[in-house]
What does this fold into?
Amino acid sequence: MFRREHVAAFSLAMASIHCTTVENGPIPDPTTGLDETAFRAKVEPILVKQCSYNACHGNTGSALRIYAPGTLRQLAYPTIDETMAPLTAEEEHANFVNAAAFSATAPIVDDNWLLRKPLASSAGGFEHKGGVIYLRGTNDPNYTVIYCWLTGGKAC
Amino acid sequence: MLIRIALVITALAGVASAHSAGAQFDQNPMTQAGNGGIVFDGAPRFSGHTCNVCHVDAPGLIHIRLESDHPELFTDGWKPKMQYHLRVVLVDEWAGVANNANGDNCGLRDVMPFKPCNDNGFALEIDDAVGNSLGGFTQVLANKCDATGTAVYILGDKSAVVHSGGVNGGTSWDVCWTAPDAGAGPVTAYLAAVDGNGGKGTLAIPTDVVGDDVAAGAVPIAEAGADVNTQTGGCNAGGDAGVGLALALLGLGVRFRRRKKLVALALVLAAASGCVHVRPRQRETLAKRNMKFGPDPAEDELDLHMQESREGSSGGYGSSGGGCGCN
It folds into this structure.
């Protein structure tokens, strides 16, 4: 048998549960503080060379979509010459936004997926289907260049 | 010259290459749609990636084989500074074979009607245990190692070799490899091949990365005469100790004739003193009862009792008790 005190406590607990409205405010622009010119000069060549292949990030189904000559293009070009032509300005900007987007979920640069995911598991990497890309860990030249860019360095 | 088959490799999966010319592997990825030196042969320096990072959805029906004019390369190992004539063979080609009929003058844009090619390709490199490319590649001309050949494309940094793209429907590629200096240790040959289907067979898309097949594999090659055991410490002698002993005995016979017995005897002792790495399959023999110094404790105890009674002494065998009359 429930006592009155129990019933009262239960009623109070039920009364304290109520729905609230969650405000989904705008997230900060992840490209803020990231230099697009430095990206095009230093980071984009790394991503195009290392990541842009068809089975990897050179397809539309990838979370990190990388446009690159000869692989993924914004438009379906009818000829191979057009497919292999240098990137357009729009494609380069899209690559910048795609790469910068990981900053939205990783306020700490070391945890940015561009850096952490392709590391060896012993160095903190995890579940990168393409395996270990930074073969020299956090001392890998590609890692240091991308790290520098993510920290706002323009002279990377 | 006859190239003898020495070792087989494998079969995996793959596609027709957009890199119909080998030089494209060296070209700038941003401005020339090149690979910037990445050849995707499965080597560790390329994160183990093979041609199927581009040539997707390959059914894996083809195979790839590595041959050498010195088949002992794959059994005895590589010899320092020796030059080997290698051949990479694509086996069971099926994609684009109908285009072989177009001959080598295919894929030309100024020749109408357009004749599609049967573009096949390969990549090969030989690395040491830590993934650094070892030795040197040389072209083959008229079945001989000759730097003036053009049968394949050697990367600018000499780290790998790929197809040159000059032969339509080619399924084998020759290259010479000069082994490194002694002491470099075991190496691994990483190789991959693409069985291309000739793209869409049109002037606009003469080559692409779909509808092709891919194979890749790795061949470990020991250094001839080197200890192949990979022990991390302790005894450094291996299964070749017996060979050393035989050589030493041979030396002993010669030395006796010259009355230098002491030197020869020292040679024998030195060769026989090495410890041997016991392999798992050999442990069965060591575990047998008759391999033990004292296989039966009860029997040992009886023998000990008899000895004590006979000699009037006891102890020294680990058994308890002792003294005269303590039976």
About this structure: Residues 74 and 88 of chain A are 9 Å apart (CA to CA). Chain A has a mean pLDDT of 89.
